[in-house]
């Protein structure tokens, strides 16, 4: 009999986290699902997470973005481009106006910005401008906004029309880089299942783990919205009828899950991706299937001749890929 149920993957686990970069692994994906999920998650991570960006600036004595300022090396366009590189973290959803006032010869950095209590400058060393004369003055207001994706300045200007204010294009994404890799792995007798590794680098306003988790939540939320073709007129009727079908659906889902898990438990020890020495030791101990393995405790495995801590760790990792573990 050919089984048509699809085994569910393992829970994500952290491979590596360092600073604002993290790598996360999902094992036991059905063949082809690695690229399906990996590409979808990458697109969501890069385009759909909310972040903070500069959306408008107002510089004292500057009428438009094509101006120059006496005693400042950079023109207004260069100053705007430098400001767009500064990364901020803001608590709350409302727009926040922060100020920057500098006078005299010297370099102006992001750390010179006078921020409100709910604002944090994540890149304090970022260069903004260079004042070259002792009487040079840079006095500006910077508007920070929360948003998603990329928004052109024309769209921002429609919402905020203020004399002397220069609106700028805004890229709100808190993610700097996202990529994924897919590897082949063994599940049961098959060697074409997928292992998905997603790597995320953020600007520090959120952690890479948060970016990964939020992207999964967004995907689930979107898919739930299209899970059926129920017409709005029929929705009330469907809701009324759903109660009577709930038990049947639950029983059907449990039956599918049980069938899939039965296949896993029947998996022969010889097909597991562990060392031959470990396989031989398990067979010698009369442990011939995954089902027999999970009935054993860690100490039971360590007591088997030929299996040490390394072999135990390998077996635990394999079981984790199936969503299983040794007996407590």
Structure notes:
It is a single chain. This protein has helices spanning about 35-45, 75-85, 155-160, 210-225, 235-265, 275-285, 290-295, 300, 310-320, and strands at about 15-20, 20-30, 50-60, 90, 95-105, 105-110, 120, 125-130, 135-150, 150, 165, 170, 175-185, 190-200. With about 325 residues, the chain is of the alpha+beta class. The protein folds into three domains: about 1-50 and about 175-225, 2-Layer Sandwich (Gyrase A, domain 2); about 50-170, Beta Complex (RNA Polymerase Alpha Subunit, Chain A, domain 2), CATH 2.170.120.12; about 245-328, DNA polymerase, domain 1. The strands form five sheets. A four-stranded antiparallel beta sheet has the order 1-2-14-13. Strand 1 and strand 2 form a beta hairpin. Helix 1 crosses helix 4 (about 210-225). The longest helix has about 30 residues, at about 235-265.
């Amino acid at each position: 009999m050919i089984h048509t149920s699809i085994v569910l993957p393992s829970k994500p686990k952290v491979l590596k986290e360092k600073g604002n970069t993290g790598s996360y692994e999902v094992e036991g994906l059905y063949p082809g699902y690695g690229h399906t999920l990996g590409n979808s998650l990458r697109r969501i991570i890069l385009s759909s997470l909310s972040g903070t960006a500069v959306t408008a600036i107002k510089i004292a004595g500057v009428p438009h973005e094509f101006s120059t300022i006496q005693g400042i090396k950079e023109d207004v366009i260069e100053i705007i481009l430098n400001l767009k590189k500064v990364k901020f973290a803001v608590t709350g959803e409302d727009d926040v106006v922060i100020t920057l006032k500098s006078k005299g010869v010297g370099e102006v950095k992001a750390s010179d910005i006078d921020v409100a209590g709910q604002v944090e400058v994540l890149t304090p060393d970022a260069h903004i401008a260079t004042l070259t004369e002792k009487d040079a003055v840079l006095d500006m207001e910077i508007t920070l906004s929360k948003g998603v994706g990329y928004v052109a300045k024309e769209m921002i200007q429609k919402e905020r029309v203020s004399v002397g204010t220069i609106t700028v294009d805004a890229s709100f994404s808190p993610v700097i880089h996202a990529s994924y890799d897919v590897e082949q792995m063994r599940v049961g007798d098959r060697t074409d299942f997928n292992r998905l590794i997603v790597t995320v680098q953020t600007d520090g306003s959120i952690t890479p783990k948060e970016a990964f988790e939020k992207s999964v939540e967004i995907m689930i939320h979107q898919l739930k919205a299209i899970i059926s073709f129920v017409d709005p007129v029929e929705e009330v009727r469907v809701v009324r009828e759903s109660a009577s079908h709930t038990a049947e659906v639950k029983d059907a889902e449990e039956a599918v899950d049980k069938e899939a898990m039965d296949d896993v438990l029947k998996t022969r020890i010889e097909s597991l991706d562990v060392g031959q020495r470990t396989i031989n030791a398990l067979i010698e101990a009369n442990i011939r299937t995954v089902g027999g393995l999970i009935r054993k405790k860690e100490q039971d495995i360590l007591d088997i001749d030929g299996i040490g801590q390394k072999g135990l760790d390998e077996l635990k990792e394999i079981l984790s890929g199936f969503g299983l573990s040794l007996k407590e």
